[in-house]
Write a structure and sequence with these properties.
The chain is of the alpha/beta class and 575 residues long. It contains 16 helices and 23 strands.
Length: 575
């Protein structure tokens, strides 16, 4: 059954002591107690004592982890004619239930809307509803000088350090390569981070119409018009564009082996690039698109799509465990079955998105730690600390240490739960991980120094979360960029000037008039002349040799003779 929810007045940030657990940071795990006061970690050490007014949480036999940071969510996103059903209240409620204490959502408005105005709109939506801390990325869905100015204000005054572009959603969010390059250049100028949704929108546009023409209108058409190489090609192209702009690149929702390998290869070449698989791409595959039940198939529609290759989740987890991919998200963007039914007769109209913000931590623990692919320290890195470093909020977030925010999870690695839409805290009526048994359960969640989940259920206050500014020039990202730029800067070759002769062009190109379809002409000499080339030069196919017309010896009498033996002798003599 779902956890009971206690909507309470905002609890004071009192004193709290978590005792007896093992603290896990990305670099080490150690036995320690954690003392919290005023929403901040004040002391970390063994055998800490509590005063009478201090609440004590027993974490014996359990792990104490930094609260999860979900780097990619879309709460109440206006999309495809409707709104994502998880708003900033339901979405952050689900996040807390799963051990995530901070989300980074997207400001993502239509073409022509000022990014600055869109930011104000999203802040108004979020501030009154969020139950945990949050930050924003900003989507750049069109390009102009005014957009560039808005980007400056967003970075310098509004706490934004990341901008996302789309290579997909033609005529909605998609930018062309030239516009993307301009966004990357501006992002680099601001010491911010570029993000990309990598799919080839032109190919998708044509192939989706092809599916409809073939009578393929169901969710399987969504997967077939977005094959893996379409994601891979766009990922590679985005990496090239970012490298030419010398701009750090963050590839969101890596869904395929091809795209992941391009990210990994780029990192090996020294590019500053990061890859973010999702709970969905790590925990399940795209075989459900071909399910006979439309509801089941449609519930999995997201972009880029889950891959039908069942080996994909394991491959992505291997790359994540080994450091070739760096962070994890949910890309939480949920819709009910009735909302998905907008595309019951045309897969192109199915709202794209799946759940994951509640189950991300447990799915990654099950598929990564429980399977033996990563240890608890790496788990912390991919669920919180690396994200905090990339977006420049470390060690405020993603770390257990004196002075860090008191966003903590008491994690039971031995406990299990079965994921189900009947018990989850989302507003949607379907869960793509339905029936999956997972190890790793958050038994206590502390957000901002307040206990927001315990054995009694969830203790939530709408609007209690705080907006967390993400400053530019993150050391983890830009620490080597300046020297890299210096090393890769184009160098002029110093040489003596050429002082030799230079030919004079006989004919200036602009003075030549070329007839595009001029036919060959016959001059008085009987020779066929072809028109000059486009550049004004002689047509090299022209020749004075011709068999056409009268020949000079046509009037002469020709002697005839009978040849009794052809050259080479008599053939019959051989037989």
């Amino acid at each position: 059954m779902a956890l009971p929810i206690h909507n309470v007045e905002l609890r004071p940030q009192g004193k709290l002591l978590i005792k007896g657990g093992k603290c896990v940071n990305e670099d080490r795990a150690f036995e320690a107690d954690v003392y919290i006061e005023g929403g901040v970690i004040k002391e970390v050490g063994q055998n800490l004592t509590a005063s009478s007014e201090c609440k004590v949480i027993d974490a014996t036999g359990k792990l104490i982890l930094p609260g999860g940071i979900d780097t990619h969510t879309h709460m109440q996103l206006p999309f495809m004619g409707t709104f994502a059903i998880d708003d900033f209240y339901h979405g952050t409620k689900a996040a807390i239930a799963g051990g995530t204490t901070m989300i980074i959502d997207f400001v993502l408005d239509q073409r022509g809307v000022s990014p600055l105005q869109a930011y104000d709109k999203w802040r108004a939506w979020a501030d009154e509803k969020v139950c945990c801390d949050y930050a924003f990325h900003v989507g750049i869905t069109w390009w102009s000088g005014e957009v560039a100015k808005d980007m400056e204000v967003l970075v310098k005054e509004k706490g934004i350090n990341s901008f996302k572009v789309f290579q997909a959603y033609k005529d909605v969010f998609m930018l062309d390569d030239g516009e993307i390059l301009e966004v990357f250049k501006k992002t680099k100028e601001l010491s911010a981070i570029a993000q990309v949704h990598a799919e080839n929108g032109h190919v998708i546009d044509q192939k989706s119409q092809q599916m409809i023409d073939l009578g393929i209108t169901g969710p399987e058409g969504h997967a077939m018009c977005r094959p893996e190489e379409v994601e891979g090609e766009a990922t590679y192209r985005a990496i090239v564009l970012a490298n030419q702009a010398r701009c750090p690149l963050y590839v969101v929702h890596v869904m395929s082996k091809t795209a992941a390998n391009f990210v990994a290869d780029a990192k090996k070449k020294g590019h500053v690039v990061f890859g973010e698989p999702t709970a969905a791409s790590l925990g399940t595959d795209g075989t459900s698109y071909f399910h006979s039940c439309w509801k089941e198939a449609a519930a999995h529609v997201t972009s880029p799509p889950l891959r039908p290759d069942p080996s994909t989740p394991g491959c992505l987890m291997n790359l994540l465990a080994n450091g070739d991919l760096q962070t994890t998200s949910s890309d939480n963007c949920t819709f009910t079955t009735t909302q998905k039914a907008l595309g019951k007769d045309d897969f192109r109209k199915i709202p794209n998105g799946v759940n994951g913000v509640e189950d991300r931590m447990s799915v990654i623990w099950e598929k990564g730690v429980q399977s033996g692919k990563m240890d608890a320290c790496r788990f912390v890195a991919v669920t919180s600390s690396t994200a905090a470093k990339i977006f420049n909020i470390y060690p405020k977030k993603g770390h257990i240490g004196v002075g860090s925010d008191a966003d903590l999870v008491v994690w039971d690695p031995e406990a299990t739960r079965t994921i189900s839409a009947k018990t989850h805290n989302h507003a949607c009526d379907f869960n793509i991980f339905e029936g999956m048994e997972v190890h790793g359960v958050p038994v206590v969640v502390v957000s901002g120094g307040r206990v927001v989940k315990d054995e009694e259920g969830l203790h939530l206050t709408q609007g209690s979360g705080q907006f967390v500014p993400t400053p530019p020039n993150a050391p983890y990202v830009y620490g080597r960029v300046a020297l890299r730029d210096q090393a890769l800067a184009p160098q002029k070759v110093d040489r003596e000037a050429y002082d030799g002769p230079v030919i004079e062009l006989a004919t200036k190109v602009e003075e030549v008039t070329v007839c595009e379809s001029a036919p060959p002409s016959v001059a008085n000499d009987g020779i066929i002349h072809r028109p000059p080339t486009r550049g004004g030069g002689r047509n090299m196919q022209e020749s004075s040799f011709s068999f056409s017309g009268d020949q000079f010896d046509d009037s002469k009498q020709r002697n005839s003779s009978r040849v009794s033996n052809p050259p080479g002798g008599k053939s019959q003599g051989l037989w």
